[in-house]
Amino acid sequence: MNSYKILAIDETGKASLKHKSKNFILSGIIVPENFKPRLSKAMFKLKDKHFEDAELVFHCRDMIRKKGPFACLRENAKKEIQFWSEFIAILNSDKISLAFVIVDKAKAKKLGWNEIAILRKAYNKILEEFVKQHLGKKTCGKIIVESDPSQDKYLIEAHTRL
After folding, report:
1. Which of 84, 53, 54, 49 is nearest to 66 (CA)?
2. What is d(CA 76, CA 51) in angstroms, rounded to the nearest whole number?
3. Which CATH number goes with the domain that contains 102?
């Protein structure tokens, strides 16, 4: 029976060369499907313990800036250290792999890339590496994406290309 690995992808910044973001980033977390329930349970527990909201979404920007629900970390240094220590301990599991594709939009522009080229190349690269590094004869893959719906066609294109 085949096992499955899940690649969950999210993007930061916009691929448009007109957008103020300097980079377009695809971030991926890769976990064995049978590990996902344990990971979810650990994250729900962490969210409930520190923010009393198990449904809270960990948005990097809010976490780093200590905004929104993460503002409480600004008020208590001990709580902040405890939260980050526990968060990193969860992510340090040998069952979790992280993947990033970072496009420097200034360099992309010099190469003659446009928004479509950035999206195509970024999605192609993250899927290529997922297949090369994590899938094999007895391991299949599943993909979960949190993205702008207008980008879905580039992910589907990259998937079909494989």
Report:
1. 84
2. 13
3. 3.30.420
Q: Into how many domains does the chain fold?
A: 1
- Predicted confidence (pLDDT) at residue 162 exceeds the cutoff of 80: no
Q: Which domain holds residue 79?
A: 3-161
Tell me what the mean pLDDT of segment 50-57 comes to.
Answer: 91
> What pLDDT was estimated at residue 147?
74
Q: Helix, strand or coil for residue 133? A: helix
Of 103, 162, 99, the residue nearest 131 (C-alpha): 162
| Structure token pair of residue 9 | 């992808």
Rounded Cα gap, residues 25 and 162, in angstroms: 21
* Separate counts of helices (H) and strands (E) for the chain: 7, 4
Cα-based distances in Å from 53 to 2, 25, 35, 37, 146:
35, 28, 22, 18, 21
How many CB atoms are located within 10 Å of the residue 92 CB?
8
Q: How far is CA 72 from CA 43, 85, 90, in A?
A: 18, 16, 21
Please give the torsion angle defined by the CA atoms of residues 136, 156, 122 and 128, in that order, rounded to the nearest 10 degrees: 10
Q: Are 141 and 5 in contact (CB under 8 A)?
A: yes
Maximum pairwise Cα distance, the chain:
50
